Amino acid sequence: MDLGTADLDEARHFYSELFGWSFSDDGSYTTFLLNGQPVAGAGPLLGEGQPTAWSTYLATNDADGVAARVTANGGKVLVPPFDVHDQGRMAAFLDPGGAPFSVWQAGTVPGAAVFDVPGALTWNELNTRDLEGAHAFYGAVFGWQFRHSTLGEAPYLVAKLQDTAICGIQPMSASQWPADISPHWMVYFAVQDCDRAAGHVVALGGQVLFPPADLPIGRYAVVSDPRGGMFALLASTR
Question: What is the pTM of this model?
Answer without folding.
Answer: 0.95
